[in-house]
Amino acid sequence: MIRVMQLGLGEIGLSTIESVLAQPKHMKLVAAVDVNPSIIGKPLREFMRGRKRGLIPPPIRITGSIKDALKSAGKVDVAIMTTGSRTVDVKATIDALADAGIHVVSSCEELSWPALRAPREAKLIDARAKKSGIAVLGTGVNPGFAMDAFAAACTGVCNNVKAIRVIRSLDASKRRYQLQKKVGAGMTVAAVKALIKKNAIGHVGLAESAAMIAAALGWRLTKLDERFEPVVADHKVSSEHFTVLPGQVRGMRMTAVGTIGKRRVIDLELTMALDADTFDEVIVDSDPAIVVRTKTGFPGDTSTANLLANCARLLGENGLQPGLNTMLDVLKLRSVGV
């Protein structure tokens, strides 16, 4: 039985706990940690009461630190982290877990391909994990699966990939408040553009997805360009949290383009907006050329929680080598780029 610690009790963290609880023959939740002083010491069952899936957590109390969690839980095999989007912000926690001999799977977006923006921290995490004999993995539905690892795996039926395009679109009105806010729902165009200039709004991880695909197919990009732009409503749209009038922002469209010289080899497009279509599509220019499209899309929060739980089980079974891993170490089959 794999003993699991959950760090971070926001919506993704709680959904991940439910995904762990749904696999009782394989995993057991033994600790729950959050730094919010208002919930430290509360019974986890009480904190999760009333959730839709109705899964009953074990009779443990929420602790405020890894040290306190280990005192009450004893042995822990894997920690699932749903805190932080930047590698530099989660490194200290990963170091503490590595020193305790605990495998780590994290939803940190940058950690899906940390060599892109945090190469120094990535090398330090890798070295410490290897020294401690534990595996570290960053994953999630996006980045970590839909627009990178899954797309690369789709090329496994292809040969000589010339270019790849991945499109992900989701109706943000059906998603949680934090995501709708993150894509600027209800804001003015000017306000969103100002935040884009400050890198203070939008999705983290699209460039990481492009870099992962390039590495998977053996391409050395000469340029990687990431751009964000607001999606403006032309009619009134609404969600549980926002009402957006014509002329206001209903979401964002983000792109990442990877080129080799003048040749465009990677083209990623992510739209997250109220009233947008929902689908995922992978288009591969290769032999043969293929188009893979989901009718439902990969549901964001649920898919991320399930990925974290399933990867935690993989790490608990010692399914990855010690060190800093990526989803290319999990989904290894792919073609080669030309």
Would you kindly provide a written description of the structure presented here, covering whatever features stand out?
The protein is an alpha/beta fold. It is built from ten helices and 14 strands. It has helices spanning 11-21, 44-47, 66-73, 87-99, 119-132, 149-154, 177-182, 189-197, 206-217, 300-316, and strands spanning 2-7, 27-33, 78-81, 103-106, 135-138, 159-171, 223-232, 237-238, 243-244, 249-260, 263-273, 279-287, 290-294, 323-325. A six-stranded parallel beta sheet has the order 2-1-3-4-5-14, sandwiched between helices. A six-stranded mixed beta sheet has the order 7-10-11-6-12-13. A hairpin with a 4-residue loop joins strand 8 and strand 9 (243-244). The model has no long low-confidence stretch (mean pLDDT 96).
Q: Please report the number of helical segments.
A: 10
Summarize the amount of helix as a percent range: 25-40%
Overall pLDDT score? 96
Q: What is the string of SSEs from the N terminus onward?
A: EHEHHEHEHEHEHHHEEEEEEEHE
CATH architecture of the largest domain: 3-Layer(aba) Sandwich
According to CATH, what is the topology of the largest domain?
Rossmann fold
Uncertain runs are none
Provide the spatial order of strands within the biggest beta sheet: 2-1-3-4-5-14
CA-CA gap between termini: 44 Å
Tally of discrete structural domains: 2
Beta-strand portion reads 25-35%
Q: What is the CATH homologous superfamily assignment of the largest domain?
A: NAD(P)-binding Rossmann-like Domain
Largest sheet: 6 strands, parallel
